[in-house]
Amino acid sequence: MEPKRIREGYLVKRGSMFNTWKPMWVVLLEDGIEFYKKKSDNSPKGMIPLKGSTLTSPCQDFGKRMFVFKITTTKQQDHFFQAAFLEERDAWVRDIKKAIKCIEGGQKFARKSTRRSIRLPETTDLGALYLSMKDTEKGVKELNLEKDKKIFNHCFTGNCVIDWLVSNKSVRNRQEGLVIASSLLNEGYLQPAGDLSKNAVDGTAENPFLDNPDAFYYFGEDPLGTIRLRGCVVTSVESNPDGKKSEEENLFEIITADEVHYFLQAATPKERTEWIKAIQAAFRTGK
Prior knowledge:
Layout: E1 5-14, E2 21-29, E3 32-36, E4 46-49, E5 54-56, E6 68-72, E7 78-82, H1 86-105, H2 126-133, E8 143-147, E9 150-157, H3 158-167, H4 174-186, E10 190-193, H5 195-204, E11 216-219, E12 233-237, E13 251-255, E14 261-265, H6 269-285
Antiparallel strand pairs: 1-2, 1-7, 2-3, 3-4, 5-6, 6-7, 8-9, 9-11, 10-11, 12-13, 13-14
């Protein structure tokens, strides 16, 4: 039986022989990570076994590169991957850690609270509910929240989600709201932000979704997004590995689903980060 595919998408990988970073189509399986030169390739360029491996995140071995994580195999081989933004890196790290833990415990990888396990009614349309929640006038209000001296932009609290589900008559009570919210979280419509909500997803809490004012969440990728942006990846590009200033600084790359590469340049590092986040936000909302 083929290993289950847990997560896949573009990441930037550091070469094993030379200090070069190239976009790769990465596939996380139950027992390892395969990476391909292109999404359309049939054979992987390499495979990283997860059994006995350790994961380091954040990895600060490369000062100029943000959102990097490292996987070290039992043979002490290091593999470095770079995500486009913080939430993307955290999602990969969360699933890889869980896959390693499942291997150690002899268990099968399974996300908590799937439609079958939580007995979600078949008539529940999570996609329609998600769109209602995102309605700018009648949906869940996105706020800039602060906790432990950190600012979380465009987020909302767990109890606000349950409040909205109850007041909108989408559920009969808060317990039923937890079931629906957990399913929205499991299907990727909602994403955790902050340690409390992320730890719950990792399995340290009884329920993956928390009806808690200190648990923060944000809207995930819109599955009804436009075709032009679907499958794209955006990442920063190191223009000069030597650290010397040049005219090609602050570059970032967009790779479309058709394998077309676009290199763009921002005026400052801050502006580049803002562009990457804005493009990723547009990708997530399908605009």
